[in-house]
Write a structure and sequence with these properties.
about 100 residues, mainly alpha, 3 helices, flat
Length: about 100
């Protein structure tokens, strides 16, 4: 595959990017390096290699979703720096 200015311009348009002349040359160089790397990988014999779905054979262990002891309102308010009888008071974060 040939990496030329026309291809870089098309990719830039599709990705909504703009390149100056120096940036375009840098992108062409990077794309050529990527293609060379892929061509090198294609030289490998993968005939008897099974496809890899996951990197490891580890399995996620999920815990049972069960209700445990809930925190009471009094316990939640006990260590709050600012509070009234029912709520924790916080600083205003929205300005109108």
């Amino acid at each position: 595959m040939e990496i030329n200015d026309e291809l870089v311009d098309k990719l830039a348009t599709l990705s909504r990017l703009e390149y100056d002349a120096e940036g375009k040359e840098s992108v062409k160089k990077d794309l050529n390096q990527m293609i060379a790397f892929i061509e090198k990988i294609n030289e490998l014999d993968t005939e008897n290699v099974e496809p890899l779905v996951h990197i490891t054979n580890e399995v996620n262990v999920f815990r049972a979703d069960k209700v445990e002891k809930l925190t009471t309102k009094e316990e939640a308010l006990k260590n709050a720096p600012l509070k009234n009888s029912d709520y924790i008071k916080v600083s205003k974060v929205l300005n109108k």
